[in-house]
């Protein structure tokens, strides 16, 4: 992967990571708003898992691109 392609991919992935984290934060705020209702808050908070999983996967991709570019 050339340096230009790597930079473009990393920038795109970082934007996507931010999007996923913002979504997870919004879900956390919604769960917090239901804090008086433990069952509802717990159910809502479970929706955080998918965007966080996606953010971590994208972060792993950024890390891999970085290692590949460094090892050349």
Task: Describe the overall structure.
The chain is mainly α and 72 residues long. It has helices at 3-33, 38-45, 49-70. The chain starts with a helix and ends with a helix. It contains three helices and no strands. Helix 1 packs antiparallel against helix 2 (38-45) and helix 1 packs antiparallel against helix 3.
- β-sheet strand percentage: under 5%
Helix content: over 70%
Rg for CA atoms: 16 Å
Q: If helices are DSSP runs of H or I spanning 4 or more residues, what is the number of helices? A: 3
Q: What sort of overall outline do the alpha carbons produce when their principal axes are compared?
A: elongated
Distance between the termini: 10 Å
**How are helices and strands ordered from N to C?**
HHH
Look at the structure and give the mean pLDDT. 93
Protein structure class: mainly alpha
Strand runs, count:
0
Q: The biggest beta sheet, please?
A: none
As residue ranges, the low-confidence spans are none
What keywords describe this structure?
0% strand, elongated, 72 residues, mainly alpha
Quick summary of this structure?
The protein is mainly α. It is 85% helix and 0% strand.
Protein topology:
Elements: H1 3-33, H2 38-45, H3 49-70
Helix pairs in contact: 1-2, 1-3
């Amino acid at each position: 992967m050339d340096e230009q392609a790597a930079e473009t991919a990393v920038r795109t992935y970082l934007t996507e990571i931010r999007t996923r984290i913002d979504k997870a934060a919004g879900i956390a705020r919604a769960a917090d708003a239901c804090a008086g209702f433990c069952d509802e808050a717990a159910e809502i908070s479970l929706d955080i898992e998918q965007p966080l999983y996606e953010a971590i996967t994208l972060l792993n991709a950024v890390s891999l691109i970085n290692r590949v570019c460094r090892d050349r």
